[in-house]
Amino acid sequence: MTLAQEIILIKKLLKRFLGFKIVKASFFVVLLSLVMPIVFFLIVKPKPAQNITWGINFSQKYATELGLDWKDAYLKILDDLKPKHARLVIYWDQTEPTAGNYIYTDTLWQLDEAKKRGVNIIMTLGRKVLRYPECHEPTWWLKSTDPSYKEATLLKYVENTVLQLKHYDNIVMWQVENEPMYPFGDCQKQYKDTVEKEVALVRKLDNRPILIQDSGEGGFWRPLYLMGDYLGISMYRRTWYNFYQDVTGISFYFQYPIAHWAYKVKAVLTAVPVDKIIVTELQGEPWGPAINSKLTEEEKLKTMSPQQFIDTINYAQKSGFDQIYFWGSEWWLWEKEVNNNSFYWDAGKAIIQN
After folding, report:
1. Rounded to an integer, what is the distance from CA 259 to the centroid of its chain?
2. What dihedral angle (degrees, nearest 10) is formed by the CA atoms of 245, 288, 310, 80?
3. HEC profile for 120-138?
4. Which residues is 240 bridged to in the sheet?
């Protein structure tokens, strides 16, 4: 058989093979599986947000740990950065140092100062809230071994807190707990049904929206979104990862291999409306093996440099979300006043006031 004849035979066999319905169907399925992800991406890929609402986070505890006078730091953030949106936090161990003894002085002062300046507030409450060790429960609560008592006293604290603060009309949203189901921090186990009871209680006491926070990088999103009205997510780029270092001795710096468009794709895949997502924690400071005021310059630059700061802002803008809150304004002030480096303060100010 000549080469020409062999080619003709192969063509006939191929034509006959492709004529089988199962082959046609299989070919179509393979083609569809290759094309559909591309079509899906082209449909859902985010467009850079045009009018972003920028805000800041503020933690009384964190400012103090940096060595700052927290009240002075708070006023400088409000008066110089001039944010119109802030996420504040009330710490249970400071608010109820002994069972039934509630002290709201510091929180009321923060809300009063924000109200004077027309700053809208997301108010975070619960036992797992902003800043490490994440869970900030009173010592008397931690010592109890009675689950019923612990849940009842937590709910009583949440109830009392909402009743104490609800008259502030600059509170635009309540955040109940912070990443409650995400396994990060020095925390006793948190139970989903207890968080649901907290949310139901806040909803009963006040009609403002409720935000539930999840990890932007590692969370499942939808289960927590369904508890409230809005989903808060983190957006971190570079971190120091401690893999149970006390046991394994393993720790390392890590950059999340996540493209800016992945967050919106994740929102679509988890059926969470994009307009109900708020980036409540955009990395604006280093993440190293110690508090940022104790890191060396070399350590800080591994996870946050001026160029990385700008890159992170561009990354967030391209993600398509229109509400973004910076994480780290207290550190910007520390860098400016203690480390004689005003870059982050000045750059953050320009973005917030844009």
Report:
1. 16
2. 140
3. EEEEEECCECCCCCCECCC
4. 253
Contact 87, 280 (CB under 8 A): yes
- What span, in angstroms and rounded, lies between the C-alpha atoms of 341 and 106? 29
Q: Strands, DSSP E only, in the chain?
A: 53-57, 85-89, 120-125, 171-176, 210-214, 230-235, 238-243, 250-255, 277-283, 323-327
Query: Could you state, in order of their start, the residue ranges of all structural domains in the chain?
Result: 1-44, 52-352
**Rounded Cα distance, 81 and 347, in Å:** 10
Q: What is the pLDDT along the chain (354 residues), one digit of tens a residue?
A: 576 665 665 556 556 655 655 544 454 445 444 444 554 455 667 788 889 999 999 999 999 999 999 999 999 999 999 999 999 999 999 999 999 999 999 999 999 999 999 999 999 999 999 999 999 999 999 999 999 999 999 999 999 999 999 999 999 999 999 999 999 889 988 899 999 999 999 999 999 999 999 999 999 999 999 999 999 999 999 999 886 655 567 888 999 999 999 999 999 999 999 999 999 999 999 999 999 999 999 999 999 999 999 999 999 999 999 999 999 999 999 999 999 999 999 999 999 998
What are residue 48's phi and psi, to 5 degrees?
-55, 135
Q: Is the pTM of this model over 0.70?
A: yes
Amino acid at 228: G
Q: Which residues contact 154 (CB under 8 A, 6 or more apart)?
A: 126, 127, 141, 194, 198
**Distance set, CA 139 to CA 92, 94, 143, 217, 267 (Å):** 10, 10, 6, 31, 38
Grouping H, G, I as helix, E, B as strand and the rest as coil, residue 275 is: helix
133: cis peptide before it, omega within 30°?
yes
d(Cα 332, Cα 254) in Å, to the nearest integer? Answer: 22
Angle at 16 between CA 12 and CA 19, to 5 degrees: 140
CATH of domain 52-352: 3.20.20.80
